[in-house]
Every structure is written in structure tokens, then in C-alpha cells.
Design brief:
Layout (H helix, E strand, L loop, with lengths): L1 H15 L21 H20 L6 H4 L9 E3 L7 E3 L3
Antiparallel strand pairs: 1-2
Length: about 90
């Protein structure tokens, strides 16, 4: 009897716990004009797209500056840990 009561109470408490995981995917387009080089324009377009996505999601815009040195590499995909932005896929 005690096992059944304990099991029911355990299940009830587990069901009442607010378990919540939230993930969002935003698709944005960054725009930049080519002034000095295509690499600089690509970096500015990535910065513009990142700003639009972070601004739309309501996240901290000040954290973008931490990612900018990592975006200077010419890659198709970027993956980050311990940041509000976890993944960037560049389609060109």
C-alpha cells in the first residue's frame, strides 16, 4: 500500500513540475553593400542578419559583439555554445 501511495505521489509531483524547453528558429536576410571587398561585405551582411534575428527574438543585442570575431571565418555553418545564438547557417 505504501509503495502504491508513494508511486502515485511521485507521479503527481513530476507531472506538476514546470518542465519547459523553448527553442526558436528565425530566418533572416542580411544586407550589405560591397565597398572595399566581398569579405567585408559578407561580414557586414552577417552582422546585419544576426542583429535582425536577435532583435526580433528579444534577446540581448549587446551579446552580438562577442560573436563578431568568430564570424570572420568564411564558413557555411557556425555553431556556438553558451550563447543565446546557437547555430547560424549561411545560404548564398
Amino acid at each position: 500500500m505504501k509503495k502504491i501511495l508513494f508511486s502515485l505521489l511521485s507521479i503527481t509531483f513530476v507531472m506538476l513540475l514546470p518542465l519547459r524547453a523553448v527553442a526558436s528558429w528565425y530566418e533572416v536576410t542580411g544586407v550589405a553593400t560591397i565597398v572595399s571587398s566581398e569579405d567585408a561585405a559578407r561580414l557586414h551582411a552577417l552582422e546585419d542578419a544576426l542583429f535582425k534575428a536577435v532583435n526580433f527574438s528579444g534577446a540581448d543585442i549587446g551579446s552580438i559583439s562577442n560573436l563578431m570575431p568568430l564570424l570572420e571565418e568564411n564558413r557555411k555553418e557556425y555553431q556556438f555554445t553558451n550563447h543565446e545564438v546557437r547555430y547560424i547557417l549561411v545560404e548564398s
